[in-house]
Amino acid sequence: MRQVSPRAFITGCQGPELTGEERRFLAEAEPWGLILFARNLVDPPQLRRLIAEFRAAVGRADAPVLVDQEGGRVQRLRRPFAPDYPPAGLIGALYEADRDRGERAAWLAMRLIAEDLHALGITVNCVPMLDLRFAGAHDIVGDRAYGAAVDTVVALARAAATGLAAGGVAPVAKHLPGHGRAQADSHEELPVVAASHGTLSASDFQPFRRLADLPMAMTAHVLYTALDGARPATLSAAIVNDIMRGEIGFDGLLMSDDLSMGALAGPVGARAGEAIAAGCDIALHCNGEMAEMAAVAAAVPPLNGRSAERAAAAQRWARYEPADIDSLRREFAALAGATDGAARP
After folding, report:
1. Catalytic residue among 116, 131, 204, 257
2. Which residue among 123, 256, 297, 326 is least packed, with the fewest CB closer than 10 Å?
3. Number of domains within the chain
4. Would 178 be classed as within a structural domain?
């Protein structure tokens, strides 16, 4: 592998194998990482080949490969890649009934998910959700959240992150500084949250503040009128610097949410440039559209300085620890009342 300095973005790709155009793009643009979706998945041998092709194209054997594997309705890899896992909300309900069982179930779920991902060469999982669940809010968060109480979310998200790390997979906390109050789906339109700074600080920010040592976080495409009335968090230097880095104290690798989402306006290249200018370390672009990928690559700088240091630290964060996986699956099924599908590999 050649030694290269990657650029400050994560990209997707169109299908289950790289096209010639995509190989050339990856070799020239040198993104930091690749994110996977259902369109990229056929079976485990195919996925391992795709990941190997990506790393060969960018010239880095350790180039990060990411996925959203939360469990429940946001689980990109299903059979034959992985069993079904329950949503975070189910584990949160278990925690409310029995805290020890709930924390153990959160750790087990992510240790088992990490085992599935590690075997395929995937090194980053975009969990845990640190968003609080609010009654009456849009269901885009819903049962993806561990719960409505800060203590519940903190305990279970910490257990989930340590479970992932034990399986050799790094976590990404999301969606900083808190998506739970949103009344709209940011995939489709820009949510506007009118809560006061004091209210947000006392609730929404708290899980992120208490887990500020996690290695990576993802921004929210949400307009918080009390914090910045003009720009959503992803594009707001005031929110990134004063709130995320300052008040919350997060100093890990900060990536945008997907720049192709409907919450953001304007050309995608401009969105990428604005996210980096606001203080994001990495621009995330997911849809695999070549023209958009090229625009993002042209708009972002090489990953250097403090951002490069954060990226390197994030890649060192997780260390695989061998375990009796069959035993852990049986324990998880017994603790969480998991479905038959979640109980077996």
Report:
1. 257
2. 326
3. 1
4. yes
